[in-house]
């Protein structure tokens, strides 16, 4: 069951607790080990910590107890950032804007994976539409491995309007679709917004028409499309590669870790 007010799993809960966001109650399965830091952070925030059992965790998550790892955090309703707050991130970093737009990605697992990669790639934030899109819920938090607690996420009614506003900030908008121009031939060193379409439909017509450039990832096998989050990951790291080339910056090392 997806719930906008709970986060489960040790990693996702800890990442949320490391932010300055508000908390309500932390439910921990009796005898669970390795949660001392979680409890300490909850007490610092003035939250409530309660011993729990499988019955209570099932009630909180709608039967997802096996996936919680014995820990569930109840939080207030998700507060989304504004587009201006996303743009302020690059201003604070003194870098060119780097924003991801998810056009009606309805699968929370895909959205969570996209958020995880966006945060790891150093994007300033991610924009989702208010309708026909997954919101930031328990599944998104879990799939993002806690990245949803750190990345600024904006929820807007009209993505075409968002694109127009970004263009006024001298940000080039690149939409991902299979009939676009080769992505590796683009110059992503300036302000960039990457638009990733939905799993089944791709980019909506109006969103596509408002993009500056449509780009595609080269395909060498027999299928002609990639998962939305995988496509987004490839494009995001091309932006990172171009911006880091010759910059002399050494990123932290990382790898696959589910």
What does this structure look like?
- This protein has helices at 10-17, 36-45, 54-61, 65-68, 83-93, 108-120, 138-143, 159-167, 205-210, 228-244; strands at 6-8, 25-29, 48-52, 71-74, 98-102, 125-129, 153-156, 172-182, 192-196, 213-216.
- The chain contains 10 helices and 10 strands.
- By secondary structure, the protein is α/β, with parallel strands linked by helices.
- α1 packs parallel to α2 (36-45) and α6 (108-120) packs parallel to α10 (228-244).
- The longest helix has 17 residues, at 228-244.
- It has a 6-stranded parallel β-sheet with strand order 7-6-5-9-8-10, with helices on both faces. A 4-stranded mixed β-sheet has the order 1-4-2-3, with helices on both faces.
Any chance you could write out the topology, listing elements then pairs?
Elements: E1 6-8, H1 10-17, E2 25-29, H2 36-45, E3 48-52, H3 54-61, H4 65-68, E4 71-74, H5 83-93, E5 98-102, H6 108-120, E6 125-129, H7 138-143, E7 153-156, H8 159-167, E8 172-182, E9 192-196, H9 205-210, E10 213-216, H10 228-244
Parallel strand pairs: 2-3, 5-6, 5-9, 6-7, 8-9, 8-10
Antiparallel strand pairs: 1-4, 2-4
Helix pairs in contact: 1-2, 6-10
Note the main attributes of this structure.
alpha/beta; 6-stranded parallel β-sheet; 258 residues; 20% strand; 10 strands
- Ends: how far apart? 21 Å
Q: Radius of gyration over alpha carbons? A: 19 Å
* Overall 3D form: elongated
Total DSSP E strands? 10
Which residues sit in consecutive blocks of at least 5 with pLDDT less than 50? Answer: none
């Amino acid at each position: 069951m997806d719930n906008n007010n709970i986060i489960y799993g040790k990693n996702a809960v800890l990442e949320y607790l490391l932010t300055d966001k508000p908390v309500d109650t932390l439910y921990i399965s009796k005898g669970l080990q390795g949660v001392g830091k979680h409890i300490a952070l909850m007490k610092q925030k003035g939250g409530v910590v309660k011993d729990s059992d499988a019955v209570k965790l099932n009630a909180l998550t709608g039967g997802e107890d096996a996936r919680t790892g014995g820990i569930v955090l109840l939080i207030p309703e998700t507060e989304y950032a504004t587009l201006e707050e996303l743009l302020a991130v690059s201003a604070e970093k003194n870098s060119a804007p780097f924003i991801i737009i998810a056009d009606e990605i309805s699968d929370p697992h895909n959205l969570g994976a996209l958020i995880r990669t966006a945060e790891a790639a150093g994007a300033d934030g991610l924009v989702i539409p208010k309708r026909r899109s997954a919101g930031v819920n328990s599944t998104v938090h879990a799939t993002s491995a806690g990245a949803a607690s750190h990345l600024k996420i904006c929820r807007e009614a009209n993505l075409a309007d968002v694109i127009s506003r970004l263009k006024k900030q001298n940000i080039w908008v690149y939409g991902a679709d299979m009939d676009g121009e080769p992505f590796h031939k683009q110059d992503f060193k300036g302000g960039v917004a990457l638009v990733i379409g939905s799993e089944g439909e791709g980019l909506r017509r109006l969103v596509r028409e408002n993009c500056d450039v449509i780009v595609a990832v080269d395909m060498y096998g027999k299928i002609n499309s990639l998962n939305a989050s995988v496509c987004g990951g490839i494009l995001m790291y091309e932006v990172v590669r171009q911006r880091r080339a010759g910059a002399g910056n050494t990123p932290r090392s990382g790898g696959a870790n589910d």
